[in-house]
Amino acid sequence: MRIITGAYRGRKLETPRGDDIRPTTDKVKEAVFNILMQDTYDAVCVDLFTGTGNLGLEALSRGARRCYFCDNSRDSLQLAKLNIQKCHAEDKAIVLAGDYSKCLARIREQADIFFLDPPYQAGLYENCLALIDSLDLLSEEGIILAEHGVRDEMPRKVGRLEKTKERRYGRIMVSIYRRTDDAGAGDQEGEEEAE
Fold it and tell me: Which domain holds residue 65?
């Protein structure tokens, strides 16, 4: 696992030994950042269920201003802190320990990008989206990228957050949510499969 491009390009990240932490693959990570394009520059990001810190560090490498790395697992946080140190990104990283609800409640600013990657089939997606919305944590033009299994049913709309697109990468899906401040239907696009 490595940083693909930007200031930390080529840095190899520490990876977990067991199966408890499931890092985002380089293929999916590259696809996610192709979706974001230039949106990472000067962005405030939240890497919820951070695992190794892989996505948040890639965002910082591509010019994000700050990233919150959040996880409930002590092992995950140790890995994330180690990888933050390897990239010399301590001045842009805020590490929060606790479950997603405690971490989100501690964030005192709106974020432009949320990476949402909880354990698959744990039933946490809708609760996470609802809390992000109720705490008003997503900026007006912000984006949430939720990584999940192809069989996971993702809600079309939660509060003001609406799924606008989904992409398939083999057995992994990425659902994209944006803020809509009206009750009307969005321009939801169908599923797309990547090569």
Answer: 26-184
